[in-house]
Amino acid sequence: MADLMDARSKQEANTAQGSGKERLTRKQHQLQKLQATGFQTKS
Predict the structure, then answer these.
(1) Taking the CB of residue 9, how many other CB atoms lie within 10 A of it?
(2) Is 22:16 a contact under the CB 8 Å cutoff?
């Protein structure tokens, strides 16, 4: 799973070369998704 995420971020980095903002927002969205699923599993 970690390898898959790593490959995906590498692919995003290649497609969005120099577009740091886009990568940042995508990372934030991924974090929010992880937090949301974490809260669901906790409760």
Answers:
(1) 14
(2) yes
Q: What three-state secondary structure class fits 30?
A: helix
pTM, full prediction: 0.35
- Round to whole Å and give the CA distance between 18 and 21: 9
Q: Which amino acid is at 2?
A: A
Q: What is the mean pLDDT of each run of 10 residues along the chain (43 residues)?
A: 71 63 81 80 58
Radius of gyration of the chain (CA): 12
Q: Identify the DSSP state of 31.
A: H
